[in-house]
Amino acid sequence: MSDTEITKKLLSACSLCPRNCGIDRSTGKKGFCGMEERIYIARAALHMWEEPCISGKKGSGAVFFSGCGLRCCFCQNHDIAIGSRGLPVSVERLSEIFLELQEKGAANINLVTGAHYVPQIIRALELSREKGMVLPVVYNSSGYEKVETLKLLEGYVDVYLPDMKYMEAELAQKFSHAEDYPETAGKAIEEMVRQTGKCEFDEEGYIRKGTIVRHLILPGHTRNSLKVLKYLHETYGNDIYISIMNQYTPVRILEKYKELNRKVIKREYEKVLDAAVEMGIQNGFIQEGETASESFIPEFDYEGVEKNTP
């Protein structure tokens, strides 16, 4: 069976993400993720705002895919998560984008929210590696992933960068319509750690292998954050790094969830950091100063998506 045939089979009754919507995306119909078979990208450029071991001074070669299988009401990348921004590209063009980011000096290839395109991404990585792409591949994820889909990525992804958004099922249902998020993300991260093992870094401090789990604190919900940190530390100890983020930005007014219409205050962040210290978390990243700024949200202006021609 050819790569194209395998892709069409996987998308014909799509179950790549935990939504298991069963839509035949190969015919142009859109799944829960909001996407059909064609790959849509909103930006492919050097990104300086990831964790220091991912962006560093070089920048991470971030490819922002349109669509998402989780679609949180507070999504920081709302415009692309709902699929309203993005240009279609072929698998061949995606492989070229990886090579172009390498030529620009990227520290890695950073696949941002690509679960619904995993078969196409795998083929693009194969093509780019055949032509000399040697950068580590980072899989940047909401954490809401199927273990079966992640297993397809074994050998293709070097670093997993998932979120762990919730340990409270009721909160997951309220904000993401995904009551099963804690259990599903827990199993997904277990598979990610199985694949990558402990974190490894090169002589310049860039991560080459491993799993970094992000947690974005939501305003008014530090209890959930403490539960997330406790679970991650008790389960993985120092085998993973934990990135505790206070950069939540209300990107649009939410009438239904008014508590989300503000930033995380200093007292909330310090409460979570103090708890992390008390738990004994050593391998981690924190954000200092006024980080909750829209500058962390890139312009989805299609930079790097279309091929430059003389």
TrEMBL record:
State one Pfam family annotation: Radical_SAM
Lineage, top-rank taxon, reads: Bacteria
Q: State the UniProt keywords alphabetically.
A: 4Fe-4S, Iron, Iron-sulfur, Metal-binding, Oxidoreductase, S-adenosyl-L-methionine
SUPFAM superfamilies, alphabetized: Radical SAM enzymes (SSF102114)
Residue ranges of the Radical SAM core domain? 64-196
Classification via InterPro entries = Aldolase_TIM, MJ0674-like, Pyrv-formate_lyase-activ_prd, Radical_activat_CS, rSAM, rSAM_sf
Q: Which cofactor does it need?
A: [4Fe-4S] cluster
UniProt lists the family membership as follows: Belongs to the organic radical-activating enzymes family.
The name under which this protein is listed is: Radical SAM protein
Can you name the source organism?
A: Blautia aquisgranensis
